Amino acid sequence: MSALPAGQFFPGQSVLHALDARAKLLGFFLLLAGVVCAASLPAYAVAFAAAGALLALSRLPARAVLAPLKRLWLFFVLIFAMNALFYERGDALWSWWIFRLSKAGMAQGANVAARVALMMVLSGVLTGTTAPMEITGALNALFKPLALLGIPAQEIAMILGIAIQFIPTLLEETDTIRKAQIARGARFESRSLWRRAASLPPLVVPIFLSAFRRADDLATAMEARGYRGAANRTHRRARPLRRADWFALALCTGVCALHVVLRVCVAF
Amino acid sequence: MPFCLEEVSFTYAAGTPLAVQALRGVSLRMEAGEVLGVMGHTGCGKSTLIQLLAGLLVPTHGRVLLDGQDINAPGCDRAALRARVGLVFQYPECQLFEITVAKDVTFGLKHSGLSPAQKEERVRAALETVGFSYERMGAQSPLALSGGEKRRVAIAGVLAARPEILIFDEPIAGLDPMGRERFLALVRRLNAQGTSIVLVSHNADALAQCADRLLVLKDGCVALEGTAEQVFADVEAARRLQVDVSTPRALGQMLTQRGVAVPAGAVTYEGLLSVLKERFCAGGNP
Ligand SMILES: Nc1ncnc2c1ncn2[C@@H]1O[C@H](COP(=O)(O)OP(=O)(O)O)[C@@H](O)[C@H]1O
Ligand SMILES: [Mg+2]
Q1: Predicted ipTM?
Q2: Rounded to an integer, what distance in angstroms lies between the CA atom of residue A130 and that of residue A134?
Q3: DSSP assignment of B24-71
Q4: Interatomic CA distance for residues A124 and A79, integer angstroms
């Protein structure tokens, strides 16, 4: 396992590392909304410029953040091709059998591929500069208003937090169990889909068993330490947002607004 | 000459900012029929070393040779390698998944090309080697067994392939004294049948009893190598490397400090007792 998993956190001292996780999470959602609005060349220019600037600011190793994109190249080719060849609207440039190549389809394909790529870069920057526990804490804070609607927001945040914390452990465990089964003669390298499916139980059963055991132990440990559900749970006082956080949020809001304006004013 | 490591280095997540160099230029030679003990503080690279031996990791630098052949060379038959080298991971009980013990032990033989009768014979023998009866254990669910029993079933699952070289990663961690004794007896029996064995452990007493040679790692390098007598000779050096010396050796050191000279070579209880007997019972009689 020499490739790092997508979403890996890299400790660092950049401006983005120093921002409050709540500001980063909100800013991320704002930029995401902007990306979803993007549908014209100028809009994509803005979006890619913003993503590039964030990547540079984060001082993350660009290769590591962009690696998941590279690993998914086939996926990008596929979504582009599916859209280009099967899009219903627009004039057909060329058609044969069930395929129908159209300009609108190609535009749509490029749209989808660019949006997915942008979302991946943005989330890579977010998770690369924010420790998992900070993200959980931020989710917890941002979910709080939902409690007014009767949604068990704190519990949801707790569940998400625990899930996020367990991901590295489970990945590590999967790796160990895969190796252990290979060492006693299992073959996971097979290219045939049928054989691959048949080779799942030796991996999946032990991992599920271990996950259940861990969940059980954790529940016991939490109860032993006095956890009785999130109601009336106090928190260490959260730091208020600082100037830099507000500034970052304002910038993200600006970019998002720019996207909305571009969407309204510029046709593709 | 089953195994040779030549200047092997290994780095996890090489080429990323999270790279960790786990081994630095480790060379090692293991003779056929030998029991090699591996010691060292947590994180010194023991588990990495044995995964390199088993061909589960590929060295960043250097070569791993089995019978003079590089096991990571493109032409090398991995399946044959896996059949020759058995690796029992730490907490092997976590890898059980089948409905019955017999099926689980058979799992590793799936691609062996043996007939069903031969497979059953192998499974029966492997279960008996770890002290279970095929008739009584074979049909049970492995998940319903106790921790120690699960571990024995998992070991049987590796033994079924009849490897020439067996590697154990901290096999006695968390076992009760009886489980520990039973495991050490198993190691001696397998070794007497000609199996070469690598034993990673923190338990100096166990290693002093059954290892022909010890290897102490520190921060990914070989810090000490030799027989238990040689490795445990300098108690202070061992402490600096964060490994225990065997209890009899520690006792011998204390006695020496209090004026009863005990040679450094007394690393097992038998050794210590015979030294004391010679000293205190004239003519060696009790
Ligand atoms: N899968 C992995 N990814 C990254 N680093 C690892 C991995 N496994 C082990 N390491 C690191 O490599 C070093 C050696 O680990 P290991 O061989 O497991 O030591 P030991 O078994 O002696 O305790 C440690 O610093 C450990 O943190
Ligand atoms: Mg280890």
Answers
A1: 0.88
A2: 6
A3: EEEEEEE-TT-EEEEEE-TTSSHHHHHHHHTTSS--SEEEEEETTEET
A4: 21
CB contact under 8 A, A187 and B111: yes
Domains contained in chain B, number: 2
Question: How many domains is chain A built from?
Answer: 1
- Report chain A residues whose CB lies below 8 A from the CB of B12: 2
What value, to the nearest 5°, has the Cα angle with vertex B241 and ends B236 and B243? 85
* Residues B79 and B150 sit within 8 Å (Cβ to Cβ): no
The answer to whether residues B15 and B59 belong to one domain is yes
H or E element at residue B216: strand B213-218
| Ligand 2 center from residue B248 Cα (angstroms) | 26
Query: For ligand 1, atom 27, which residue shows the shortest CA distance?
Result: B43
Do A23 and A141 meet the contact criterion of CB atoms below 8 Å apart? no
The residue to which tokens 């690393």 are assigned: B267
Q: What is the pLDDT along chain B (286 residues), one digit of tens a residue?
A: 678 999 999 999 888 778 999 999 999 999 999 999 999 999 999 999 999 999 999 999 999 999 989 999 988 888 888 889 999 999 999 999 999 999 999 998 988 889 999 999 999 999 999 999 999 999 999 999 999 999 999 999 999 999 999 999 999 998 999 999 999 999 999 999 999 999 999 999 999 999 999 999 999 999 999 999 999 999 999 999 999 999 999 999 999 999 989 999 999 999 999 999 988 886 545 5
Question: What is the number of the ligand 1 atom nearest to the C-alpha of B49?
Answer: 17
Q: Which domain holds residue B251?
A: 246-286
Q: Which of A64, A186, A187 sits opposite B17 (nearest CB)?
A: A64
B94/A177 CB distance under 8 A: yes
For residue A193, is it within any domain?
Answer: yes
Count CB-CB contacts under 10 A for residue A80: 19
Residue A201: give the domain boundaries.
Answer: 15-265
Q: How far is B86 from chain A (nearest CA, A)?
A: 6
CATH (domain of B74)? 3.40.50.300
Tokens of B178: 């009886």
Q: Calculate how close chain A gets to B159, using CA atoms only, in Å.
A: 9
B234 and B269 housed in the same domain: no
Establish if A7 belongs to a structural domain: no
In a domain, A210, yes or no: yes
The answer on B261 and B191 residing in a single domain is no
